[in-house]
Predict the structure of [Ribosomal protein bS18]-alanine N-acetyltransferase.
Amino acid sequence: MGIADLPVVVVNEARCHYSAWNADMLRASLGSGYRCRVLEVNGEIAGHAILSVAGPEAEILNLCICTSLRGHGLGRAFLRHLLHTARDAGAEDVFLEVRVSNGRARRLYETEGFQQIGERPDYYPGPRGREDGLVLGRRIAEGPLPEPFETCLA
Ligand SMILES: CC(C)(COP(=O)(O)OP(=O)(O)OC[C@H]1O[C@@H](n2cnc3c(N)ncnc32)[C@H](O)[C@@H]1OP(=O)(O)O)[C@@H](O)C(=O)NCCC(=O)NCCS
């Protein structure tokens, strides 16, 4: 992800999340040392992700696939790419937070080996009041990681 990608990423981000990151937050991420990635399909940005790696721990701070391209395996491929990126950077565990109501994302993470390790009551704002968050984690230090599908990652 680069500065030139931000106009598209900001639009996609706003469509993906109730508490979307704004342009300033995304721009700051680019200069922060986070691994900021866009997923390209046929030269167009199909999704974006932000990964933080600090020593043996990595955190997926953001993962988003455009609404029109969901359900085709891109989210799974992108997640797998992030796991490889985290391991290549020296991480041994990957963590993330997900809304209790986000069944699609929870199913994706569960089937990629993430397990619930905590709960954050009333963590997320939402249209019907606050909502609990789940903290998920996955060990990546040992064993093979599933390969991403063939995609264009920039
Ligand atoms: C979560 C998200 C990244 C998944 O991306 P995607 O490209 O649609 O996911 P995939 O097509 O790779 O599907 C991965 C798995 O998600 C689950 N899934 C996908 N579509 C689903 C649906 N309509 N209903 C329930 N589960 C679904 C399935 O387990 C699926 O695996 P399967 O196809 O082998 O059964 C995407 O929905 C998204 O960007 N959502 C908004 C942002 C978000 O919630 N990010 C995660 C925050 S923690």
